[in-house]
Design goal:
By secondary structure, the chain is an alpha+beta fold. The protein has helices spanning 11-58, 66-76, 134-137, 147-159; strands at 80-87, 90-97, 104-110, 120-121, 124-125. A hairpin with a 6-residue loop joins strand 2 and strand 3. Helix 1 (11-58) packs antiparallel against helix 2 (66-76).
Length: 160
């Protein structure tokens, strides 16, 4: 049985409309996800700034109360201060960016370290200073005090 010549007319249009609809759906989902990620980064930056400012105010580096300073900094960064908790000099701040179902929150903590660190650089713990053993690091020949030049100088003296 043969179909009439005009029976499949317009089927490409329906297929193209479906493909375009899926493309628009995928594109709008990607744009919404990118907007949400950008808002989350902005919220975390606002929370970090608010917590750092509040910690500075709690130790007297900035005038005003810690939570007041946190509120001003959060507002200046486009966020709303949701919570501010102060425990000695450590501050925990929670902020919200946006409203409704698209609101994004972030939390940040700032303050001095609880315990003094033996191997720290600016309060950040670091590992051992060198992976070499202690006997390898000791100077075996007199020379400059720099560890960079020490190897070259010792090798030059040994070979001569």
């Amino acid at each position: 049985m043969q179909r009439p010549a005009g029976a499949e007319r317009g089927s490409a249009t329906v297929l193209m409309a479906a493909v375009l609809g899926v493309g628009v759906l995928v594109g709008s989902t990607a744009l919404a996800a990118a907007g949400h990620r950008a808002q989350a980064i902005r919220a975390q930056g606002s929370a970090d700034a608010a917590a750092t400012g509040a910690a500075a105010a709690s130790v007297g580096l900035l005038p005003g109360g810690p939570c007041t300073v946190a509120g001003h900094l959060a507002t200046a960064n486009g966020a709303a201060l949701a919570a501010c908790e102060l425990a000695s000099a450590t501050v925990r701040v929670s902020v919200v960016v946006g409203t409704g179902p698209f609101a994004v929150g972030a939390v940040a903590v700032a303050g001095p370290a609880d315990e003094p660190c033996e191997q720290c650089v600016y309060g950040v713990p670091v590992g051992p200073r060198s992976p070499m053993s202690r006997s390898t690091r000791t100077r075996s020949c007199p020379g400059p005090t720099s560890t960079i030049d020490q190897g070259d100088t010792c090798q030059a003296r040994r070979s001569s």
